[in-house]
Amino acid sequence: MVYEVTIHGVLLWASMGFLMPLGILIIRFSGREQSTTRLKLSFYFHLIVQMLSVSVATMGAIMSIKTFENSFNNNHQRIGLALYGAIWVQAIIGFCRPLRGSKKRSIWYFLHWVIGTIICIVGILNIYTGLEAYKKRTKRSVTLWKVLFTAEICSMAFFYLFQDKWDYMQKQGPCLRDNGGQVSPSDDPESSINDKDLWREPCSKVNALKNLFN
């Protein structure tokens, strides 16, 4: 039974703890792409990764139904059951994308974004509850796995939040004049005026998914 529990945990980690966040990162980073070809490739890569995530989660669900006693008397099993249904709803919503310019497009985007975000967050939290269930059943320590998984999620969260600030940070550095010389913005007599104007401008974030679908 320990072997089956371990395989179940690995499958659900691969699905909701790695592939699903990776798919979100891919579509997030595509917002910086200027090439239409690369943008399309990013979209199809996002689609493939999320389909793999759904497939692996389905394998874990089938294994759970066949192997384990599913009394649903604990939070891990209840949340897992809700997630299995939600990921298929999200997959159906993704394939039922309305045409651009239609009135249903904004509603579809909102649902796709909200449901996907909730599934990803709840799926990550359920991995922690699964580790606690594994510890309770096998009496083995799961501290190392918690640390490694937390480090992975923190790294992905960092890249998710940092990527849309990279271009903005690069623009804060020295500027180049037409003669090829490099000067600091403080040496430019007009920089103080420009800076005062610029800092009041709101810095809009790139929403790659919205830009891609709209």
Summarize the structure.
By secondary structure, the chain is mainly α. Helix content is 74%, strand content 2%.
Written description of the protein model:
This protein is mainly alpha-helical. The protein has one domain: Four Helix Bundle (Hemerythrin (Met), subunit A), CATH 1.20.120. It is built from seven helices and two strands. Residues 188-206 have low confidence and may be disordered.
| H/E series | HHHHHEEHH
What is the arithmetic mean of pLDDT?
79
Helix content: over 70%
Distance between the termini: 48 Å
Biggest sheet descriptor: 2 strands, antiparallel
Number of helices: 7
Number of domains: 1
How many beta-strand runs? 2
Give the second-level CATH assignment, the architecture: Up-down Bundle
CATH class: Mainly Alpha
Topology of this structure?
Blueprint: H1 2-29, H2 36-67, H3 75-95, H4 104-138, H5 143-170, E1 175-176, E2 182-183, H6 191-199, H7 208-213
Antiparallel strand pairs: 1-2
Helix pairs in contact: 1-2, 1-4, 1-5, 2-3, 3-4
